[in-house]
Specification:
mainly alpha, Glycosyltransferase, two-stranded antiparallel ribbon
Length: 611
């Protein structure tokens, strides 16, 4: 793969630092203005790589890499950079805390109206959004980890006091975000004979089997999910009529706090819990985003640094149950049946009769995440890989777009998501989603990271390389946002819009992908059982020939052949050590040893003939 994650991340950091820190002042906001999500995305462009990759750490000044300092030189030196981040994180946390102490998770300037002449009301601007909950979980955990380590390098009392205050604010925001996720989860139950029921049965029935048989089989497949959802006791999602097994259902996250969602009872200080207005139905986009943020709650780093207290662990466990059940539900639906999977029937059709390639991407994203968590077999991964390739083609990412091509609209202005329930406080709101290309790339690299077959991994990495070339072309090439994203007009001639400011929404997702790619490159290489067997056979021959040579040529002190034999012996010992994990490398060592042994044997034969 031509991608170089470290170099690309350093370039992203250099561009983000130059764009964010202008004339010695931190500049918030980008293409879509400043809000609780955009500002978190801007911070995460720095905090996420610094949290996830040891080579990008900023919390230990003495260990910061020279290339990292060169990329962030506009922010200062190894001591000034963490101090500046401390200041900027404080600005964010205090800005998005209301006067009553409640953390703010509003969508703000990301909200759009369905009618061009309508204006978002002040009450609507303050509505909490699942995207903000999810981003806040990742940012708060990254902040708490950063503060915990940075404190060990600080002696000045004023800075240590600031760290303690920020830990309190970040902890409160994390707790409130988890409560928000619990209050945004929803289960939508419906009769099989309803339009939603008929749509779901039509989606899963890819073989034309009798509807009654499909219905009975689907109920049986979903029985574990139904049982788990019935046992939910915290937050929303437990009010659906799941005791009636005749009903079908779907589960996931809606766009905000569910209307009439009960407050989360917790001893944690999270401030007043606002009333919700969101429709009590799952949205694919928000469900995928929620799952991504939730995964950070039980990551190895969160556990190692003990970033959650006991009460937060209680909330995290409740969220994880929803996380597990949601993944199981959507994987069951997407891969139902013995023939063609519903996932392979592109575009995906939702229960409200809407179809879009973006919906297929959302379901594919959840299936890939489930495959990653369960380390599933390559037979499943092969079929998912075919879906990823098809989506890349249909979205004109690895194929050329022609004038007037409808798929271009998915990239700009994006796919509109109707925020049902928002019209209670004003005009009907929309949420524009334009991350198709980078989301597809993230799922492709995730799938490649678990491939156990070299052919399958090469296929996925080739696809990722093609998508990455497309995304690289969409970077800003001039102006204050040079080096950041997103300028789709660079690729699609039908898009006349040219933005001067960066999209932190898109740039942060690029940073997430690069971190995933860097993490995947650190995994051990694939090993073929056939290659391991061949390496053992070669090693056996090489060690036998070495033994013969040692017997034929006694190791007499001062003999010129002795160092050579020792070198061969060391190479074969090293090959035996690594043969199970790196059989190809072991073969290279064995090949060199065999060549050296052959030269010695040939020299001995020549000497015998001369005599």
């Amino acid at each position: 793969m031509r991608l170089q994650p470290r170099q690309q991340l350093l370039e992203l950091w250099e561009a983000a630092a130059r764009t964010s820190y202008r004339d010695g002042v931190w500049t918030w906001g980008g293409r879509d203005g400043s809000n609780s999500i955009s500002d978190a995305e801007q911070l995460l462009c720095f905090m996420y790589p610094a949290s996830e990759l040891p080579g990008f750490r900023l919390d230990t000044p003495n260990e910061t890499g020279d290339d990292v300092l060169a990329a962030l030189t506009v922010l200062g030196d190894s001591v000034e950079i963490p101090k500046l981040l401390l200041k900027v994180i404080g600005q964010y946390l205090r800005t998005y805390t209301a006067e009553d102490g409640r953390p703010i998770f509003s969508g703000g300037s990301y909200f759009r109206t369905q009618e061009d002449d309508a204006k978002v009301t002040p009450e609507q601007l303050q509505l909490d959004v699942v995207d903000s909950f999810s981003m806040s979980v990742t940012l708060a955990l990254g902040t708490l980890g950063f503060l915990k380590v940075f404190r060990q390098s600080v002696r000045r009392q004023s800075i240590r006091t600031e760290i303690r205050e920020l830990e309190d604010l970040a902890g409160k925001r994390l707790s409130a975000a988890m409560a928000g996720l619990l209050r945004s989860f929803t289960v939508n139950a419906f009769d099989p004979a309803s339009p939603a029921g008929r749509a779901l049965l039509r989606t899963v029935n890819q073989t034309g089997a009798p509807t009654r048989r499909v219905l009975d089989d689907l109920r049986r497949e979903l029985r574990p999910v139904r049982a788990g959802l019935r046992d939910l006791t915290i937050g929303s999602g437990s009010q659906a009529d799941l005791d009636n097994e005749n009903l079908l259902f779907e589960c996931g996250w809606t766009w905000g706090i569910v209307k009439d969602a009960p407050a989360v009872v917790t001893p944690l200080d999270i401030g007043p819990q606002p009333e919700g207005v969101a429709a009590d139905t799952p949205f694919l986009y928000f469900t995928v985003n929620a799952l991504v943020g939730i995964a950070d709650l039980f990551s190895p780093r969160t556990r190692v640094l003990s970033l959650l207290n006991d009460d937060q662990i209680t909330l995290a466990e409740a969220i994880q149950r929803r996380w597990d059940l949601t993944q199981l539900y959507w994987r069951t639906i997407a891969t139902y049946g013995r023939g063609t999977w519903p996932l392979e029937d592109i575009p995906w059709r939702t229960v409200d009769e809407k179809e879009s390639d973006y919906y297929s991407l959302g379901v594919t994203a959840m299936v890939v995440q489930s495959l990653v968590n369960n380390r599933s077999a390559d037979v499943d991964l092969d079929r998912v890989g075919a879906v990823l390739e098809e989506l890349a083609i249909r979205a004109r990412i690895i194929r050329r777009a022609v004038p007037g091509d409808p798929p271009v609209l998915m990239h700009s202005p994006g796919v509109p998501v109707n925020l049902h329930g928002s019209d209670m406080l004003g005009p009907h709101l929309l949420w524009m989603v334009s991350d198709f290309a980078i989301t597809l790339l993230k799922r492709t690299i995730w799938a490649a990271s678990i491939a156990q077959n070299t052919r399958m991994r090469e296929r996925l990495l080739t696809l990722a390389d093609q998508i990455w070339r497309h995304i690289l072309q969409r970077r800003h090439t001039a102006g204050p946002a040079a080096g950041l994203w997103d300028q789709p007009g660079n690729v699609f001639t039908d898009i006349p819009v040219r933005d001067e400011e960066p999209s932190w929404y898109f740039s942060e997702r690029v940073a997430e992908f690069l971190v995933a790619a860097a993490t995947a490159s650190g995994e051990p290489p694939l090993r073929s059982p056939q290659l391991v067997e061949l390496a053992y056979q070669m090693l056996g021959e090489a060690e036998h020939l070495l033994d013969q040579e040692m017997v034929t040529r006694p190791l007499v002190a001062g003999q010129t052949i002795q160092p050579k034999l020792r070198t061969i012996q060391s190479a074969l010992q090293r090959a035996r050590t690594i043969i199970s994990d790196r059989p190809a490398t072991a073969q290279a060592l064995i090949n060199d040893a065999l060549l050296d042994l052959e030269r010695l044997a040939a020299a001995r034969d020549s000497a015998s003939e001369a005599i």
